Amino acid sequence: MIRSLALTDFRSYASASLPVSGGAVVLHGPNGAGKTNLLEAISLLTPGKGLRGATAAEMGRREPGEAVGRPWAVAATLRGADGDEVRLGTGVQTMGPSARRIVRIDGETAPPGRLLDHLRPVWATPEQDRLFSDARAERLRFFDRLVFAAHPDHAAVVSTYEKALRERLRLLTDDTRPPDPLWLDALEARLAESGARAAVARALALQELQAGIDARADRPFPQADLGLAGPAEEMATAGADEADIVEALGEGLMRARPRDAAAGRSLFGPHRSDLTALHREKNRPAAEGSSGEQKALVLNLILAQVTRLAEQPAQPILLLDEAPAHLDEARRAALFDEIEALKLQAFMTGTERPLFAALEGRAQFVAVEGGGLSSPSPLVGEGGGRSPTDEG
Ligand SMILES: Nc1ncnc2c1ncn2[C@@H]1O[C@H](COP(=O)(O)OP(=O)(O)OP(=O)(O)O)[C@@H](O)[C@H]1O
């Protein structure tokens, strides 16, 4: 679990540090105070672009009128189940368009994937309120993140696939010369192999998540019947051998060449797959649900995810941006109870402290304002920064 956090020139924070207790941490403060910025900082303690999907260059603190942000850093001290302390750090040392985030573990530069040995942040953001009615690509990215938190190899497989896909499209749409057939074959072989592996991992993760959702039937959250739409995932779900999926993908890609070349887009392959969900109780597609209903379905899915991750050595950390505000009182109380029952560390944001009234005395409350953090004793904040922009 995270024991302390320190931010330097990160977004609206010049310099802030926060000792953290286990369990629930409530970040409350007005709009624009920096609550989401703090969650984003924690979400960077895992590979990827964090909960806003931003570039490293965007995250450096900028004063009004400044075009380029400062080099920034996020650091956390963790205490593992065995009582050992680990220091995780990430940030960029020089700014510029090519700014790359580096990762340090106990002071040593490490590949970002190693962060997953220690921490597995899972987040829910207001953007997910329309997850099931949103664009397909967004939903697939969300699902791939769930797959990847439990099966870290999945990220590399998807990235290999996406790289080969871009390369193949470049060959197919190059007007200056016909595509080199050997190169095209090689790329499609790579696509079929990585695509099949991704599809198998997705199907497996879906099965585990569905089992997790089914096991939560007694909770006051709506349940989703999940599915994966896409030929490769459908084969994997039906129990096909990976080799057969590779073959089917290879054939499909070859057949799709003229169509892809004409469209200038890749119209076939598991990047076009989708996560489907049925609101079980209502027996209707989740996409038709209200944003409150979709939020509750997503939260239930995320709780199933953290429950399954809790069985792994690296700890799940729940980051809930404005989630409680979207829930009615009964579900809010159930969410808080669940965080306690699962012994989860959860960071939750909300503009109003009374939203978290049920947690008074059971959680750490942190007031976020003006780029600073303050938490009553024994948890003393040291926000020294100020938000350079308006703070609602
Ligand atoms: N790179 C940056 N440098 C300086 N300030 C930034 C940077 N990026 C974002 N900000 C500022 O951070 C503030 C937004 O913070 P954040 O999104 O954390 O607010 P919040 O407390 O979650 O608000 P809300 O309740 O409205 O969701 C804005 O004032 C924004 O201008």
TrEMBL record:
Molecular function GO terms recorded: ATP binding; single-stranded DNA binding
Binding site for ATP: G29, P30, N31, G32, A33, G34, K35, T36
Chain segments annotated as transmembrane: none
Annotated localization: Cytoplasm
Location of region: Disordered: 371-392
Domain spans labelled AAA+ ATPase: 21-373
Keyword terms of this UniProt record: ATP-binding, Cytoplasm, DNA damage, DNA repair, DNA replication, DNA-binding, Nucleotide-binding, SOS response
An individual GO BP term: SOS response
Predominant place of localization: cytoplasm
Highest rank taxon of the organism: Bacteria
A GO-annotated cellular component: cytoplasm
Function description: The RecF protein is involved in DNA metabolism; it is required for DNA replication and normal SOS inducibility. RecF binds preferentially to single-stranded, linear DNA. It also seems to bind ATP.
UniProt record similarity statement: Belongs to the RecF family.
Protein name per its UniProtKB record: DNA replication and repair protein RecF
